[in-house]
Amino acid sequence: TDSSPIVKALMDELYDYFISMKLPAKLRVSLACCINMCGAVHCSDLAIVGVHTKIPKIDHEKLGAICEIPTTIASCPTGAIRRHPDKEVKSVVIREDLCMYCGNCFTVCPAMPLADGEGDGIAIYAGGKVSNARKPPMFSRLIVPFLPNNPPRWPEVVEIIKKIVNVYAKNARRYERMGEWIERVGWETFFRLTEIPFTEQHIDDFTYARETWRTTTQFKW
Question: Looking at residue 34, what is its pLDDT?
């Protein structure tokens, strides 16, 4: 997912909001091309994140020549990358059940591309902010798990972002950031007003979820 064309398609629709005073407060819309979130999407009012659903495709011939195998193995936050079982092969293998498609391995080893035309998509987050005014800083939360990656205008992404902005502009109080408005009315009301379905994909089922109760982007039950 490339950032520039999505930003162009989205701002063509939202431009009027950013040259007027129609919004209740500052609205930060950010975009990151993967879940490593270099665009600070975890602390933005609205965020678009490129997501992958398939494991990296390993080029075994190139990997041994251009990548450091110990560094590549160490780059995986979930320990999904292992040495190739054949000692004659200078490469690695991936445990699909442990891979979370973050793409961190690709940043240290170009022989492990993650991009896939059919498996790539876009997720939407909402409710984050850095400002300590009125309310403490907030993490954004996942509100749309997956949307298709449809260039050049990304109609599904533009439609849902525009709907959220319109609902926020209509219902929030003056100077109320999106996360503050959602916290006041409740996430149930937010999902009802925006007509976004709430599914099991919104819920964090990580084994140690309790330890990260108030420090992640997922809902916890």
Answer: 81
